[in-house]
Amino acid sequence: MVHAMQDAGVVVTGAGGGIGAALARRFAAAGARVVVNDLDAAKASAVAGEIGAIAVPGDASAVVEQAQDALGGTVDVYCANAGVAFADGDLHASLDEKSWALTWDVNVMAHVRAAHALLPHWLARGSGRFVATVSAAGLLSMVGAPSYSVTKHGAYAFAEWLSLTYRHRGLKVHAICPEGVRTDMLAASGSAGEVVLAPTAIEPEDVADALFQGIEEDRFLILPHAQTAERYRARGADPERWLAGMNQIQQKVEVVS
Asked: 89: left (phi > 0), else alpha (psi -120 to 50), else beta?
């Protein structure tokens, strides 16, 4: 795997910390030429300086052209990692349409825009790799976070569509779907995160390890938490039972809140 990534041009969005920074470090350690993107220019520069990468701060939705220029014209691997989450809780209590629009734009449309910009070159040469940091919320759901759950389902669906549409033309797609990861996002997730995610949370580096293993095995679905697969099977096999179980978790969260 280290040899396969040697000199590859890699872009990681949302790489100023958390999972994105862990991915950037792992690709750099494998010999890749890495672009570190983040809205926070200082954080992007700090990570880039640490690993000998190139900082390209700014909106993840518009980074492809600048990243291509920084890498000499070619992006081999694009990690659509930037994401936002709101603990929007009870939908009947309030509806913040601006937050929903932002979540949709960052968690879904940034992936769509990046793929749209990259696909012509990738399809012309017959190779390319798109890595989407989705979340287990895209396979299951997340109590207390409707906009996050809905948009992560969208991110997963888009990654799935990319794979089924272009795999015969050389495109490799990976959807990373972790449960709790010890990041700033988890720290800000409130009581739902404390009840559902924190007890089994892993480190960002564990997510990077899982991705590299999945790349080695040429797998689309990357599940850093072993229990996610069983939960996904249970959801498909008996939706009523699964929904009842999730509602019990919701009730626990309400008690904690």
From this structure: left
